TrEMBL record:
Protein name stated in the entry: DNA mismatch repair protein MutS
Originating species: Alkalicaulis satelles
Domain Smr: residue ranges: 95-194
Alphabetized Pfam families for the sequence: Smr
InterPro entries per record: Smr_dom (IPR002625), Smr_dom_sf (IPR036063)
Region (Disordered): 21-87
Residue stretches of biased makeup (Pro residues): 38-47, 57-70
Family matches, as PROSITE patterns: SMR
Amino acid sequence: MTRRPPRPLRADERELWRRFASGVKPLDPDRLKALEAPEPPSAPPSSPARAMDQRPLPMPEAPRAAPPPSGMRRPTDRSSDKRLRRGRVEIDARLDLHGLTAQAARGELLAFLARAHRRGFHTVLVITGKGARGRALDDSRFEPWSLDARPLPGVLRRAFEGWMREPDLAALCAGYSPAHARHGGDGAFYVILRR
């Protein structure tokens, strides 16, 4: 790209420049030398210790994520497994935990499963809910610098899997599995009780 030559100054611009420049005094040469850029410092002699400091530090390997727990032990026969996945299961009882706190929901779940086990039920449906949709879509909550202290959505749903591994509940249950869409999908679980 070529630069266009500057246009010549008009008479009034020349007069203005002359008046402006008449009050300017040249700099003192000694002071001008002090304003010049200093020479960059020379690099210090290289030593093994200095070279070691400049190497990048080794990063520790990130811990591997554990596989998600699979609570349902597969039935011994394929037909039972197939019926469970397709939602063609006879449900003996239902428990809806909507609106309960995690502590209250755990107590209700334990009492419900104990009653169902005493009555000889085989398959029960536990509805935990999917969690608040509005919170799940709020992207700022998942940023590491976000100060949002609200719990993540689906508190009961996430707590359910932990509860099912506790000894008092595990003693009653043979396994569990997410429910089919007709029975609540991601917001519900089939619980298979021990005989």
